[in-house]
Sequence to fold (232 residues):
Amino acid sequence: MKQNFEISKIFDSTILRPDVTWNEIAEFVDRSIQYKVRGIAVPWYGLRYVLQETANTEIRIVVGIDFPFGYSPVEMKLKEIDYYMSLSKKITDFDVVINISAVKSANWNYVKEEINTISQYIKDKDDNRICKMIIETCMLSEVEIKKICEIILECPEVDYIKTGTGFGPRSTTLDDVKTIRSVVDDKKKIKVSGGIRTLKQVEDFLKAGVSLFGSSSATQIIDEFHTKQRGK
Fold:
């Protein structure tokens, strides 16, 4: 990465542990704002607080839809989207968990209809909003990942394929990303989330074609990047 590379803009700074305290959230938001990250995601009950704190910044607010399991009916997912859209235009990014149960059941018609319906709904409401589909690669076989990517490739309103929620049984791997890229090439952007804690990981994923990261360690990785640059 070049020295003038704006590393902060490839991170959605994320803290979504179920046991996170309000003090941790407040400190995390403050630090993320200081580092001028691309986006911030916190437990959804704290959205109004984050909106207030980021009001005079360009930082985006990221929300998860049907997070982290994805098996609610499509109608419920749309109601979630409506609610968050009603709060503020600063809530720009909708990271939607697809129905993994339907994927594991090979119910591809359901999966395709869900992705089409949700992505079109988001863009019809506001074309400037970002639609990311979380496919939870850590729970899928290579064949299932490829099938999902083939479906998403046919959905023009989907902006990103996101690898995971961070709540799965393992972290995202380079092989996961290579499998995604083998289908979509550069026709869809890729966001990696789940186990991203070091600059080395970020560098490897960038080389593999990833353009965005969700991480609770975003600010530490940014520090690591700048320390490395100063040492050159």
In short: Strands lie at 11-14, 39-41, 60-65, 91-97, 130-134, 160-162, 189-193, 212-215. The CA atoms of residues 112 and 149 lie 11 Å apart.
